Amino acid sequence: MLSVSNLSVQFGKRVLFDDVNTTFTPGNCYGIIGANGAGKSTFLNIIAGKQEANSGNVHLEPGKRMSVLEQNHNAFDEHTVLDTILRGNKSLYKVKEEMDGIYAKEDFSDADGERVGELQIKFEEMNGWNADSDAAAMLSNLGIPEALHYNLMADLDGVQKVRVLLAQALFGNPDVLIMDEPTNDLDYETILWLEQFLANYDNTVIVVSHDRHFLDAVCTHISDIDFGKISHFSGNYTFWYESSQLAARQRSQQNKKSEEKKKELQEFIARFSANVAKSKQATSRKKMIDKLNIEDIKPSSRRYPAIIFEQEREAGDQILNVEDLKATLDNEVLFQDVNINLAKGDKAVIYSKDSRAVTAFYEIIAGDAKAAAGNFQWGVTTTQAYLPLDNSRYFKDPMSLVDWLRQYSQTEEEREEVFIRGFLGKMIFSGEEALKQSNVLSGGEKVRCMLSKMMMTRSNVLLLDEPTNHLDLESITAFNNALKNFKGNVLLTTHDHAFAQTVGNRIIELTPNGIIDRYLTFDEYMTDPKIKELRNKLYAN
Description:
Number of helices: 20
CATH class of the largest domain: Alpha Beta
Strand order of the largest sheet: 5-6-7-3-8-9
CATH topology of the largest domain: Rossmann fold
Helix content: 25-40%
Structural class: alpha/beta
Oligomer: single chain
Mean pLDDT: 88
């Protein structure tokens, strides 16, 4: 249905794609992955017709329709919400516009009547008469109430705009659906709805996402951009990651007998086969697993950071005590009546429907802001390392990364350049990269620097406010593994479902009318009907 032939893209001397040939077939969802800068978004822009390649062609089967998730959230500010949805199906909207234009004429000629008749037939074939009701139903499913359907897009807040643009992309059952980071700015319920929608979607989906849980839930294939090529692998992200790690291990085991490698491969296949029936891709993945040859998986050029959190000392039993804490913003209550006793070993996911609430909570317990009421006390044996949502204040002054990290050294040994370069090297700042100026870093580079700083402090409590922002999949995966292995305490807020589910053993939700505090996994918490009922009450005005 959608094919790419002899595609080449080059910026100066840098080659992104070199003679790429690939096909995307109906009924499959392709997750595009690759290191930062590999060209994921560039590739989507090219197949969507938003960017030209140096050479090659993109071919969409005649008569088929492509839909692209809009990245400019203000692009439709002058249109109503419902009108914005209908514009997602350009062919349908063009017919509708022409009909409306003819109907608006004062002098309605015979020719106009004939033309309207032709348009009405087209409109009916496109299911146009149900378009308004279909669009309204999709909006309601995405949490946009009917009262807003005729408002201008400019009147909506940022989260609501994202949901409307998502509905626009999905509207009308496009033959090819292209989505770049569709889960950004969506809450848990909306992401879950989107996962379920795409899992039952019969057409072609091509998606870029850093959300591993989302990729696992929707993808039938992983399309890996590496070495200037695109390779398709059957299965979801976890299968691709585990199999690529196995391939790398087996290639490095020169002295290991082929029989032992074959046994390891068989055990790997058996482990994934056990769960394959639970997924949308059951039949295709079962065939793929049975035929899997480790030689088909090429070594990757990716570099995974070495994130290891160690404690200078183990904390005692008293970690954090919070009493009657309250935070406000412009006289609006963000949270109140917060009472928490954090126990040794707790890895708590701090959650709220209002992201401002969790950020305010971290700023208060980190000593960066004052509470409106209440107090908190850290245990005397605890030390905290904080990764804030906004880390810009740490990178205002121009200095090399070596000098930047040296600011946080505790001993003479830690001030040595060799020692500091070791920490930076773990975060993939090696050689000349360690001399980059700290005030010109990208978002992902800043987070990796902050992680170097946190590792150096060897704290026994980690405070993490949206830690995966700006990170690539490799860094997110390494970070996730480091937190699972960390022996100290963690307070974590994240939109990354896999992070929350695999790290957290306790969920603390902040609301304007108190908290909910449960020792559950994230999935258990979010799917418990009694907790859902309680949540609705606590958020009600």
